[in-house]
Structures are given as structure tokens and as C-alpha cells.
Amino acid sequence: MRFAVIHCRNCLRHIWVSEDRLGQRGKCPDCNAPVQTPADWPASQLIEGPHVMHDFAECAPALAENAS
Ligand SMILES: [Zn+2]
Q1: Ligand 1 centroid to residue 48 C-alpha, Å
Q2: For the chain, which ranges sit under pLDDT 70?
């Protein structure tokens, strides 16, 4: 699994977003601020990081349920 590393605009935390979740909206794991991930993240800037799969991945499904 590859990840994009973005920053929370509120608390500046690093957020690891798995490539299959790019373009989705979620929440910052720390401060719960809404986070929009970039859909056009360049593939050359994706990072291998299976050890952090739980980071943004846990937050996105919860927000998707709330949005519907
Ligand atoms: Zn935050």
C-alpha cells in the first residue's frame, strides 16, 4: 500500500492517506477537523508505508456515513 502525506490545516498534523482514499473527505485523527485529500496527488510522491494503514483509513468511513 502506498500513501500520500498531507497536513491538517487546523493542527498541522501529518496525515497518511492510502492511495485508494485519495480524493475522499475525512477527519483529522487528532483534532477532528474536516480534511479533503487531493485526488490528483502525483504517483511519484506516494510513499510505501504499511505500518500506518490505520491512520486516515479509520476516519474516512465514519465521515462517509454521516454525509449520507
Ligand atoms: Zn488536525
Answers
A1: 22
A2: 50-68
